[in-house]
Amino acid sequence: xxxxxxxxxxxxxxxxxxxxxxxxxxxxxxxxxxxxxxxxxxxxxxxxxxxxxxxxxxxxxxxxxxxxxxxxxxxxxxxxxxxxxxxxxxxxxxxxxxxxxxxxxxxxxxxxxxxxxxxxxxxxxxxxxxxxxxxxxxxxxxxxxxxxxxxxxxxxxxxxxxxxxxxxxxxxxxxx
Length: 176
Prior knowledge:
The chain is of the alpha+beta class. The chain has helices at 54-57, 62-66, 89-107, and strands at 2-12, 27-34, 41-49, 75-82, 127-133, 141-143. The two termini are 43 Å apart.
């Protein structure tokens, strides 16, 4: 099982994120704001910052955030991957990509255009995400196993070792 721990912080404004340029300022982020249809503030977008820091990546959304119903209600939450030790960059970047894909797949944000093309990655069945801290509307725990193909399982019924007696012997209150 590949477990990814994400420690969330926020809310930040677009101006606030310009200071997020330290060596640990990579990961995934969420943008909240008024829904373009009904105006209720909700999760609009999940993105990633894996080749550049949050301070470089997030401001690239300034155009569409400013065109929401009320950009003053926009808020950003950043998620830094956490663990016992920092993995090699290639592994860290792959975890960021997988975390973003699974979170988009699980939460289906309004402005993620790629959500329709996000398919279950081969790694999904073994991927497990724990969202810690201020994860806002994200589920605290997301399992990629839930978004794969349903396993070949059958409904519970009488166990084959129980002889057919016409009664449900498994839940019987009768003494044996």
